[in-house]
Amino acid sequence: MVPWIKFERNQILFDEILSERCYLPSNEFEKSTLKFCKEWLSGQESFTLQTSGSTGVAKKIKITREQLKASANLTAKVLGLQKNDTALVCLDTRYIAGIMMMVRSFEVGMNMIIVEPASNPLEKIEEGTCIDFTALVPLQLETIIRSSDSNKLNQIKIALIGGAALNRKTVKDIAEIKCSFYATYGMTETISHIALQKLNGKDAQDYFEVLPGIALSKDERDCLIINAPHIANESIVTNDMIGFVSPSKFRWLGRADHVINSGGVKIAPEKIEASIHIIFEDLNISNRFFITALPDKLLGQSVNLFIEGTPIEKQTEDSIQEKIKHALSRYERPKSIRYLVTFVNTDTGKIDQHKTIALMQP
Length: 362
What we know:
The chain contains 8 helices and 20 strands. By secondary structure, the protein is α/β, with parallel strands linked by helices. It has 2 domains: 208 residues, ANL, N-terminal domain (Rossmann fold), CATH 3.40.50; 102 residues, GMP Synthetase, Chain A, domain 3. It starts with a strand and ends with a helix. It is globular, with a radius of gyration of 21 Å.
């Protein structure tokens, strides 16, 4: 059976994508998606991709067809993806996460349902539609869970969750869902993920486990070094601080380039965010937030909490401050709490901290 690709208005076979009968795209998302499909099926040997810019300056990098194929086939083998499975592609197909969903489908022979990226991509999926494989960003998963479409998650067999860490509440929410959820660790430079963490079920993990054939080490900063022959001849040195559980298992601790130096004390924002997630959960606060440094005349940098939404009532904010005193050291406590109605997101659905902070500058 020839695999097919289904857009909102039509369904075509892989064999028809390069023909004159090919489906005419109805918007820019479908246009960019079909563009890649045609390039892949015509045998194009190299592709120029752009990084998201969420952890640094966005840049373009060149990736070969063989690198994409090697990454796709490794994931397919580990997750047991099969020919004639159905994949839901609902991430931006201009970036690595969306592109890899298509490459995996082409390599394995999976059917593709293509849905334009949205906070709730399952809204356009009919009840009862069986989806074997998909990839979501945390914002999408959190939105689906809060919606009337939450039961549709049980129609999905495997879902990758990438781009940012899930909060504790969401991890609890997916505990009883039939779908197998995996957090991913990777970046454009590593051709998508190089490690997975099972998030639910009896075999749930609290660490990432590297994929077969990839070796890990760390440098003097405790930052991860990746050796993956299918990706690059040279080691990939990251800014991600990690702690090893074993040579093939690690926990992500935060980014070295996010460390806040406040009065000579080095503070990891991710550690503070983990504590505030617990505080928000206890107070039933669902607002997105992040911790970041702002210039400080006395300390050099100060710790600050940014919350998405309108200012929380004083009684609740007082409760936040009181819990923060007990959960964090005096160096870790935010000097200020600031609100912005809507955070700025990158094209890949992550919070763009730099642009969000810029909106609040005088």
